[in-house]
């Protein structure tokens, strides 16, 4: 495979890597950096790729390993070792607490948006969210399965519109 063909194939697959990068880093800017590092490593090591194998899986593996390496490097850099007799880790993650305010605001917004849904959409959506299958919802609410699917679809669409501020930018 030529470098041009390899680059073209990576370009087709790279869009599916961004959600994985966001999931790993939980930050859009860090995800962009991780994606760039991954693509750079893939291109510089293209001779290690075996043609005919799953390119997407190969790139996912590179991304995961790059993330782990960067994370370990960051942890080592941010850990100070006390050389006294007690030998405590000063910046140990055991003593950290996470600020839950953002999560609290997000959950409140989601609950509000769900509560604002019309009852006809909210009930099937919440049942599906709680794990009920389409046919179970259909039986319990005595409505056709197609109606169940349609109402859940509409509920998701309305929630997406109401909660647009939490969407990741592509």
From TrEMBL:
SUPFAM superfamilies: Sigma2 domain of RNA polymerase sigma factors, Sigma3 and sigma4 domains of RNA polymerase sigma factors
Residues covered by the RNA polymerase sigma factor 70 region 4 type domain: 108-159
Annotated ranges, domain RNA polymerase sigma-70 region: 17-73
Entry keyword Transport: no
Pfam families tied to this protein: Sigma70_r2, Sigma70_r4_2
Family from the record: Belongs to the sigma-70 factor family. ECF subfamily.
PANTHER family assigned to the protein according to its UniProt record, in alphabetical order: RNA POLYMERASE ECF-TYPE SIGMA FACTO, RNA POLYMERASE SIGMA FACTOR RFAY-RELATED
Name of the molecule in the record: RNA polymerase sigma-70 factor, ECF subfamily
Organism: Pseudarcicella hirudinis
């Amino acid at each position: 495979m030529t470098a041009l063909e390899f680059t073209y194939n990576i370009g087709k697959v790279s869009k599916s890597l961004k959600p994985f990068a966001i999931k790993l880093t939980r930050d859009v800017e860090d995800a962009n950096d991780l994606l760039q590092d991954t693509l750079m490593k893939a291109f510089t090591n293209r001779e290690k790729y075996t043609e005919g194998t799953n390119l997407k899986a190969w790139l996912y593996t590179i991304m995961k390993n790059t993330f782990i390496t960067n994370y370990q490097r960051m942890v080592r850099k941010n850990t100070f070792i006390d050389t006294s007799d007690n030998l405590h880790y000063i910046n140990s993650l055991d003593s950290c607490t996470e600020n839950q305010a953002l999560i609290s605001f997000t959950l409140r917004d989601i609950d509000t948006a769900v509560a604002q849904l019309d009852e006809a959409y909210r009930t099937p959506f919440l049942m599906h969210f709680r794990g009920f299958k389409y046919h179970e919802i259909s039986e319990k609410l005595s409505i056709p399965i197609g109606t169940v699917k349609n109402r859940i679809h509409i509920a998701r669409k309305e929630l997406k519109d109401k909660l647009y501020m939490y969407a990741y930018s592509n």
